[in-house]
């Protein structure tokens, strides 16, 4: 039982289809009501797709799970009216300290890039995030959230998946055009389709402790390499392998502490309060007063499924890819999987795009997953060196970093998760003109402050409004009415014009114009998931249509 | 700019002496740590990833399996 949080119990309800004994067919069935499954449900609903969510439990995630949410997932949740609440509830930290043995190596102050609605990241317990999303699902007539529904088996034939599900009322079947498996790293769904989930296992175990402390303890991120209060184990070959410890703050004065345990540690022994409490006291100092909220031990792996789609079953989040915890890449990238997937499913279900569009989900998100795995492995190799030579190199970096600024960027205690641009995606149309800056085709749109009729409006909010519903694209056009631009269609899909300039959105600060390296006449074709598909220095309907068709896999 | 493979140090004997002297009195472990710091410091000074990649290849022990 936690002191700062009471787990909600969600009601099981028998579905009409089970009661009536009929087999209903649904466009989308989502397996798992974790952060990714719930995001998928909200995203489906926002695009007009009814979604059934099955979860074998009836509460939010238990204990300490994801902590840190980065800008892009916050932006995605903000489309569903949740971003601002998360930021308000969550904790933002700016000062980080890195320690090596007894000494502080350096401290840093994160200076976030200004002019974004959402911050670079926040810390917030996963159960708060899930609870808010469950409430949002409850407000949506298109989301059918079914607790105590356990998927027993899954069969596919042609374009339909048949799911056998167990509830407190017995076993029944339902059908789905598409199944989105968001049931975590140990996904049963993945096992049912015999999906291959391979990669690297790590021997290191981590002890997670959440403690409640006085609010006066500083809101900073502290990372220790080889801390004096937590010495590592000695391997059979005599090599001492130092550990690491991370401390950061979540909401409600709960601090998360991650202790890396030695390879030879006994998880059950390490979890005992008699063992954990003195360890935390040694770390925080004799003055610190704290209460233990939660303790668990985990061992991690870096793996991904070989194909994100098996017939009509699509994998997202940890079910598709599992990374080390360094850099908060699990939930953050899972939310971006959903951002990428749902507009594609909607257009394919509507017959507005061919099924090939769904294959671009694997292309783009497997690419992102590999990038995340690479980043996560790099952090892991720095934090837990696997040989005496790499430990020595790591220590050399840390010694140099005390006095030498050049060594600090080499210190890797986990890198903040940022979106992986789909630079080589087959949906992109290559630039034909020179553009400076970051907004290359395949990149998620950077936010910027604008004004409409004298009122402030964020660019991403304006894009979301302009493309709401069926998965429409946006043509973001700079210049006044003298710059010709009109909506472009590709079959049932429309790219609507959104102007920056007189008569449209005003860019008083010039931030948007600079971020997009725009000039009067510049045109960006923007996907429903707010990624750049193509851009030009002037509007040409035929070119826009060709790019739109390409982006729809038509 | 490719890596310089030809002699580029003035007074090579003097430099070598300075290098050895710099590690005088250090334990093997300390000397190895110093070498690692030296590698990182010089790598930052060079900066050019092509040169560094070539240097990594040159430095790998003779007879060792190819990296990666």
UniProtKB/TrEMBL annotation, chain A:
| Annotated ranges, domain FAD-binding | 27-375
Q: Origin, by domain of life?
A: Bacteria
| InterPro entries linked | FAD-bd (IPR002938), FAD/NAD-bd_sf (IPR036188), RIFMO-like (IPR050641)
**Pfam families, sorted:** FAD_binding_3, Rng_hyd_C
Q: Which UniProt keywords apply?
A: FAD, Flavoprotein
For activity, the cofactor(s) needed are: FAD
Q: Which SUPFAM superfamilies match?
A: FAD/NAD(P)-binding domain
Stored Gene3D superfamilies = 3.30.70.2450, 3.40.30.120, FAD/NAD(P)-binding domain
Question: Could you tell me which PANTHER family the record lists for this protein?
Answer: BINDING MONOOXYGENASE, PUTATIVE (JCVI)-RELATED, TRK SYSTEM POTASSIUM UPTAKE PROTEIN
| NCBIfam families, sorted | PRK08132.1
Protein name in the entry: FAD-dependent oxidoreductase
What is the organism of origin for this protein?
A: Sphaerotilus microaerophilus
Show the taxonomic lineage.
Bacteria, Pseudomonadati, Pseudomonadota, Betaproteobacteria, Burkholderiales
TrEMBL record, chain B:
- Extract the InterPro entries matched here: DUF2783
Listed name of the protein:
DUF2783 domain-containing protein
Species source reads Sphaerotilus microaerophilus
Taxonomic lineage per UniProt?
Bacteria, Pseudomonadati, Pseudomonadota, Betaproteobacteria, Burkholderiales
């Amino acid at each position: 039982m936690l002191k700062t949080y009471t787990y909600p119990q969600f009601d099981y309800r028998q579905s009409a289809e089970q009661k009536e004994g009929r087999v209903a067919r649904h466009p989308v069935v989502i397996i798992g009501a974790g952060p990714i499954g719930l995001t998928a449900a909200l995203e489906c609903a926002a695009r007009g797709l009814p979604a059934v969510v099955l979860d074998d439990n009836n509460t939010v995630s238990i204990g300490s799970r994801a902590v840190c949410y980065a800008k892009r997932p916050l932006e995605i949740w903000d489309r569903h009216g949740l971003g601002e609440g998360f930021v308000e509830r969550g904790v933002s930290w700016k000062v980080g300290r890195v320690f090596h043995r007894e000494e502080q190596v350096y401290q840093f102050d994160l200076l976030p890039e200004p002019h974004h609605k959402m911050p670079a990241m926040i810390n917030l317990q996963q159960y708060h995030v899930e609870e808010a999303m469950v409430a949002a699902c409850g407000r949506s007539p298109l989301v059918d959230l079914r607790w105590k529904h356990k998927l027993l088996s899954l069969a596919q034939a042609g374009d339909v998946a048949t799911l056998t599900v167990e509830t407190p009322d017995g076993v029944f079947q339902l059908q789905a055009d598409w199944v989105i498996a968001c049931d975590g790293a140990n996904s049963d769904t993945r096992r049912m389709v015999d999906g291959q989930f391979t990669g690297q296992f790590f021997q290191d175990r981590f002890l997670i402790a959440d403690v409640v402390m006085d609010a006066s303890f500083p809101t900073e991120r502290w990372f220790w390499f080889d801390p004096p209060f937590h010495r590592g184990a000695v391997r059979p070959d005599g090599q001492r392998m130092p550990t690491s410890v991370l401390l950061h703050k979540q909401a409600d004065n709960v601090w998360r502490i991650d202790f890396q345990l030695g390879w030879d540690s006994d998880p059950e022994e390490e979890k005992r309060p008699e063992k954990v409490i003195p360890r935390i006291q040694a770390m925080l100092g004799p003055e610190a007063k704290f209460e233990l909220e939660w303790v668990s031990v985990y061992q991690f792996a870096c793996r991904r499924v070989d194909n994100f789609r098996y017939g009509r079953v699509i994998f997202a989040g940890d079910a598709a890819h599992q990374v080390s915890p360094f850099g908060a890449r699990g939930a953050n990238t899972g939310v971006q999987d959903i951002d990428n997937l749902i507009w594609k499913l909607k257009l394919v279900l509507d017959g507005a795009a061919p099924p090939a569009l769904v294959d671009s989900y694997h292309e783009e998100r497997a690419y992102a997953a590999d990038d995340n795995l690479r980043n996560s492995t790099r952090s892991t190799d720095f934090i837990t060196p696997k040989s005496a030579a790499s430990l020595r190199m790591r220590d050399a970096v840390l010694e140099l970093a005390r006095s030498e600024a050049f060594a600090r960027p080499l210190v890797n205690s986990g890198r903040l998760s940022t979106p992986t641009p789909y630079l080589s995606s087959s949906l992109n149309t290559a630039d034909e003109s020179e553009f400076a800056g970051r907004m290359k085709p395949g990149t998620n749109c950077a936010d910027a402050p604008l004004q409409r009729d004298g009122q402030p409006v964020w660019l991403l909010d304006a894009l979301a409004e302009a493309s709401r519903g069926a998965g429409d694209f946006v043509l973001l056009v700079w210049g006044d009415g003298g710059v010709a631009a009109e909506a472009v269609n590709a079959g049932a899909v429309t790219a609507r014009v959104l102007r920056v300039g007189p008569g449209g959105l005003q860019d008083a600060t010039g931030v948007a114009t600079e971020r997009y390296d725009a000039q009067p006449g510049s045109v960006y074709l923007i996907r429903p998931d707010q990624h750049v598909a193509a851009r030009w220095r002037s509007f040409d309907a035929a070119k826009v249509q060709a790019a739109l068709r390409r982006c729809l896999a038509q | 700019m490719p890596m310089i493979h030809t002699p580029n140090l003035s007074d090579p004997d003097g430099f070598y002496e300075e290098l050895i002297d710099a590690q005088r009195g250090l334990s093997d472990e300390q000397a190895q740590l110093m070498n690692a710091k030296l590698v990182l410091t010089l790598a930052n000074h060079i900066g050019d990833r092509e040169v560094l990649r070539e240097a990594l290849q040159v430095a790998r022990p003779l007879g060792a399996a190819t990296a990666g």
